[in-house]
Design brief:
The chain has one domain. The protein has 290 residues and is mostly helical. The radius of gyration is 18 Å and the shape is globular. The protein contains 13 helices and no strands. Helix 3 packs across helix 4 and helix 11 runs antiparallel to helix 13. The relative contact order is 0.23.
């Protein structure tokens, strides 16, 4: 039960990214500056954790990979997701982020040589159709834009690379060690594109809250939950994230989809669950827990 609660907590914390970011935007801070400070403050928290746990050393041969992960998994991912939130809102951005499993299926075929089953193909097709629905939806308060949808899809693609990097390179390091190296590189990658604005005490408070909850807190409790829970079950629980983000966006900011938007969102989440079910079936086939 503790594993479920920890992963559920992580999903709730990740669901805060969009709604909390909009509070920071309202203070006059641009999306890329939010991404920059989320990286910097998150790094400080992980650095403290690594110092306390003695988990700060990485092998020299892995430093280029960790740096590449910082540029892709932090600079590009954090930056594109914040831009998407600023352009199309928290609810639609979180839905587009969850195109990641479809990207994982395609990348696993290209990079890891994994097969494309009928279930994976169906999930990819449902994701594509779902994205088309939410991108063309009308009748709600959410107004999709081409740049916003592209930024959201970029966030989903770069989020998928977390799996590829982890599977191929980073499995031997703990969470604190990975982000101790990746976050400062990611912040440096964002720096040239950031216009720094004057920040009120409220803006700093929201930035610190955003970083502590959605970066350090969410990753920490998620991986703690994974140590107690099978990965496929954790993935199902984590799909609460876009639901939580959409609910908070409706409650705080009155963000609402039109009919096609809700249909597309449902298709994307159904594709996520189909991918998880396929992973569970394959795990049972090789004698591993589902």
């Amino acid at each position: 039960m503790s594993g479920y609660l920890l992963v559920l907590c992580a999903a709730v914390l990740w669901g805060l990214i969009g709604p909390l970011s909009k509070f920071v935007f309202a203070e006059g801070i641009t999306p890329l500056e939010v991404a920059f400070w989320r990286s910097v403050i998150g790094w400080g928290l992980f650095a403290g954790q690594a110092a306390l746990c003695g988990a700060g050393r990485a092998q020299t041969r892995d430093l280029p990979i960790l740096a590449a992960f910082g540029l892709v998994g932090v600079s590009l991912f954090y930056g594109s997701y914040q831009v998407a939130i600023g352009l199309v809102g928290a609810a639609l951005s979180s839905v587009l982020l969850y195109t990641a499993p479809a990207w994982v299926a395609l990348l696993s075929r290209l990079v890891l040589g994994e097969s494309m089953s009928a279930a994976k193909l169906a999930a990819v097709a449902a994701t594509i159709f779902g994205v088309a629905c939410v991108s063309l939806s009308g009748g709600g308060t959410i107004e999709p834009s081409a740049l916003g949808v592209l930024a959201g899809l970029t966030a989903g693609f770069t989020y998928a690379l977390y799996y590829i990097f982890g599977k191929k390179y980073l499995g031997r390091y703990g969470t604190a060690t990975i982000f101790l190296y990746a976050l400062p590189v990611g912040a440096l990658g964002l720096w040239p594109f950031v216009h720094f604005a004057h920040k009120s005490a409220a803006a700093w408070a929201f930035l610190i809250l955003l970083s502590a909850t959605t970066t350090w807190g969410a990753y920490s409790v998620y991986y703690a939950g994974l140590r107690r829970l099978e990965a496929t079950r954790a993935a199902v629980v984590a799909t609460l994230e876009p639901v939580m983000a959409a609910w908070l966006a409706w409650w705080w900011w009155d963000e609402r989809f039109g009919p096609a938007g809700y249909l597309g969102s449902g298709l994307i989440l159904a594709a996520v669950l189909l991918m998880v079910a396929e992973g569970a079936r394959r795990s049972r086939g090789v004698g591993e827990p589902a």
